[in-house]
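4.2 Preliminary Data

To establish feasibility before requesting continued support, the project team ran the inverse folding procedure on a target of 416 residues. The structure was first converted into the token representation described in Section 3, and no sequence information of any kind was made available to the design step. The complete token record follows.
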């Protein structure tokens, strides 16, 4: 196999990516990549940024930001990655390893980074470890897939693309109905009227007007730092920035004495970090039932009807025969599906999904998005989906896009 300037290694949720990176940097003889054995490589990854950030915070040693007064931790994800890439190129390595380089970046920043990386391949060897096919650089001519610890090579680019193309996915069964529907007799669930937010004197949101009505399917998009998380935290009641504003949630003006607990009873919320809270030996059946009780783990004896409902969800997810398996033993993709079922088991009036596909491989992301689309079509739950990445299969009705400016981000509504 000839020496290439661009290698792509498609990773999956079961891939031992860390070990492969260590072997590449340690100059081990790796089948299919023997040409790199005696070359000097450096790593471009989120873990490297975290390592330099730790050095800066613990020992006051500035490496990536030595020419700047700004601390690494105060930079956006895009700025941090730009600083790391610049530093690595100054070291003049023979090859550079990219691990999911576009994660946590908005669409515009992804495009800018991709242009830089394409330029680098003209005089450096680039080894890409990516979990999404869209992230493969166009100049790539050597292709692999990492299955666990096994690195499989492809005879041609056509063979790689043909084998790994992900078809549209569908679920055969219908969404199970709730045991006791949470009734909200309102057309408008959330209403922002001229809402502005600032932090430490810096304006983040500028005169936001946005109404979320019953049964709608929204996607929120916008660059890093544009205020997406701020919007969500005001809806869920986790931010005090909504007080004194013209913000109405489930018919109650913010600051009018509404109960945060009552608010959370009407909202299903999922972000991947929530998964880390469930470290015990919870069965899949109990995981879904715990969503009925808003608890981390199940501490009450479940009823027969609760068990039946949980098993309908597991059947839908093709996990029916694994109801007694431990949640902690599932793949990352299956964990996300179970957490989605847990968030939806009561059919909350409002379901918020915050970067739910971040870090998933291609097939797991397609499966998760297919489930979201199905819930949107078969339930009355209003969905708000937030993601940096444009999921090609996602089918929202409306898009709320944040456009940053010096006076804070403004919002624009469009129909998909």
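Position-by-position output of the design step:
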């Amino acid at each position: 196999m000839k020496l290439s300037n661009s290698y792509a290694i498609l990773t999956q949720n079961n891939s031992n990516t860390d070990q492969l990176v260590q072997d590449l940097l340690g100059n081990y003889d790796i089948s299919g990549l023997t040409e790199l054995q005696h070359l000097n490589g450096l790593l471009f990854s989120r873990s490297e940024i975290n390592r330099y950030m730790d050095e800066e915070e613990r020992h006051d040693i500035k490496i990536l930001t030595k020419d700047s007064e700004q601390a690494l931790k105060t930079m956006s994800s895009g700025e941090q990655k730009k600083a790391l890439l610049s530093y690595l190129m100054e070291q003049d390595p023979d090859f550079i390893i990219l691990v999911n380089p576009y994660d946590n970046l908005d669409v515009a920043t992804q495009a800018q980074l991709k242009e830089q990386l394409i330029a680098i391949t003209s005089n450096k060897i680039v080894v890409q470890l990516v979990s999404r096919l869209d992230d493969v650089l166009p100049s790539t001519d050597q292709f692999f897939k990492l299955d666990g610890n096994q690195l499989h090579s492809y005879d041609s680019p056509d063979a790689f693309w043909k084998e790994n193309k992900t078809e549209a996915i569908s679920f055969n069964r219908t969404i199970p109905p709730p045991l006791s529907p949470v009734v909200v007799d309102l057309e408008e669930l959330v209403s922002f009227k001229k809402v502005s937010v600032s932090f430490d004197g810096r304006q983040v949101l500028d005169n936001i007007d946005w109404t979320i009505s019953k049964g709608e399917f929204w996607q929120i998009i916008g660059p890093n730092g544009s205020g997406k998380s701020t919007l969500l935290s005001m809806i869920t009641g986790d931010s005090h920035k909504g007080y004194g504003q013209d913000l109405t949630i489930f018919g109650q003006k913010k600051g009018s004495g509404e109960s945060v607990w009552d608010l959370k009873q009407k909202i299903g919320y999922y972000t991947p970090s929530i998964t880390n809270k469930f470290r015990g030996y919870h069965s899949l059946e109990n995981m879904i039932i715990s969503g009925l009780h808003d608890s981390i783990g199940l501490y009450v004896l479940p009823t027969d009807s609760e068990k039946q409902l949980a098993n309908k969800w597991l059947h839908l997810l093709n996990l029916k025969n694994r109801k007694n398996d431990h949640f902690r033993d599932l793949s990352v993709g299956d964990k996300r599906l179970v957490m989605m079922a847990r968030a939806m088991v009561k059919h909350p009036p409002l379901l918020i999904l915050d970067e739910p596909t971040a870090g998933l491989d291609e097939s797991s992301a397609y499966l998760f998005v297919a489930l979201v689309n199905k819930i949107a079509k078969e339930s009355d739950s209003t969905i708000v989906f937030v993601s940096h990445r444009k999921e090609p299969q996602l089918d929202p009705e409306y898009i709320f896009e944040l456009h940053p400016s010096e006076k804070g981000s403004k919002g624009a509504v469009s129909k998909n």
